[in-house]
Design a protein that fits this description.
Elements (H helix, E strand, L loop, with lengths): L2 E3 L1 H17 L13 H14 L4 H10 L7 H8 L2 H7 L5 H4 L4 H12 L6 H18 L3 H7 L4 H9 L6 H6 L8 H13 L17 H9 L3 E3 L3 E2 H19 L3 H16 L20 H6 L1 E2 L8 H8 L2
Antiparallel strand pairs: 1-2, 3-4
Helix pairs in contact: 1-15, 2-3, 3-12, 7-8, 10-12, 13-15
Length: 315
């Protein structure tokens, strides 16, 4: 497996990213972009209006499973719709939803989320997760967290069971489905960040690693690939080295996740290289197409210097 890690460079990349975020420099000049923020605040407000203290945490828990395989910004922009949320709020309430058939529940989810591709599989598991939430945990995901003493590490293990655990295995163990290492970590990050549950060890846990986070480390040489590599293997390794870096430097995983994700999303995606705090370390721009099409990270440059070359040849 041709995946090499440069730990000292990883530490430098993290420090540079956090420094720019904290000082609001470059692409952080307008603050940190949190695509989920408006949606989570919306479900929190609706929960208060409905008088259901568990509504917001349930909604965030169930919604997070659909983030995988979609553009996070576009996904939350699509579902941050107060009128639609009011209409389909019942899909997040086990007591109300389970009075309907599985087909009706899935139809409601499809209308609200309008999923495509891989995420249609999450909708298929929605009735099962709702039923488990209602039967085992009184319709409140907070009771699942309580069962594991509010310990993030125990909760992550219970959600993931093991890396790449099959749905059938999770069902046999009577745990929730569709929550792999990345989604489980992202869930904990958001539940903690938006004060939906008080964990006993809020600074622990893993750094959620998606395409945007991994691409930043690949493009800056912290993670070196000589050829296309399996995306799961890459994200697993990236997650491990980021977790080690957080532990060694006493860094909050959420902050590292946000800093790197913003650079990938608002810097690389928009070719905003000149305002990127990692510009001097970056030597390429990799494409997301192989990631979406065949589950691979291809380290080949697909236009990092394109704009500069166009400028030089036209003058």
């Amino acid at each position: 497996m041709g995946i090499e890690v440069d730990k000292p460079r990883t530490t430098i990349i993290i420090q540079k990213a956090l420094g720019a975020m904290d000082s609001q420099q470059g692409l952080f000049s307008e603050g940190v972009f949190r695509p989920e923020e408006a949606y989570i605040e919306m479900v929190k407000n609706l929960g208060k209006q409905l008088g259901k203290s568990e509504f917001a945490s349930n909604a965030v828990f169930l919604t997070t499973a659909l983030v995988f395989g979609d553009d996070t910004g576009k996904f939350f922009k699509r579902i941050t719709d107060q009128e639609r949320l009011n209409k389909y709020a019942w899909i997040f309430d086990p007591k109300e939803a389970l009075e309907k058939s599985d087909a009706e529940i899935m139809a409601g989810c499809k209308e609200f989320f309008r999923p495509a591709g891989y995420n249609k599989n999450v909708i298929l598991e929605w009735p099962y997760n709702l039923r488990l939430l209602g039967q085992e945990y009184g319709g409140d995901i907070g009771n699942f967290f309580n069962k594991h003493n509010g310990d993030i590490e125990k909760i992550l293990r219970a959600l993931t069971v093991r890396p790449r655990a099959k749905t059938s295995e999770k069902r046999e163990k009577r745990t929730f489905t569709r929550y792999g290492p990345k989604i489980a970590s992202l869930l904990i990050q958001w539940i903690n960040q938006y004060n939906l549950y008080e964990f006993g060890n809020s600074n622990s846990g893993a750094v959620p690693v998606d395409f945007q986070v991994a691409r930043v480390l690949i493009q800056t040489g912290a993670v070196q690939l000589n050829q296309p590599e399996n995306a799961h293997q890459v994200t697993t390794i990236v997650g491990r080295i980021l977790q080690e870096a957080c532990s060694q430097s006493n860094l909050e995983p959420r902050r590292v996740s946000e800093a790197l994700w913003n650079i990938g999303s608002r810097g690389c995606n928009q070719k905003n290289h000149k305002n990127c705090p990692l510009e001097q370390f970056c030597d390429r721009l990799i494409s997301r197409r192989p990631y979406d099409a065949s589950g691979q990270f291809d380290p080949k440059d697909t236009g990092r210097w394109e704009e500069e070359l166009e400028f030089e040849t036209s003058h």
